[in-house]
Amino acid sequence: MGQKSTEEQVTAASPCIRNCCLNDKDICIGCLRHIDEIVGWGSKSPQEKLDILAKCESRKQT
Known about the structure:
Blueprint: H1 6-9, H2 35-39, H3 46-61
């Protein structure tokens, strides 16, 4: 059996904290994801999930 790629080995847990409420920009005040990022989370690749998490961290800083 072949080894998994680095991307396949990385798993990112959902940042959801069950405090779901969208602001006027459709950003959840609990996890800081945009509604499109929340809805599509399950079908995102590991790298896409990491990118979203980086965006959430950036949103937290502003």
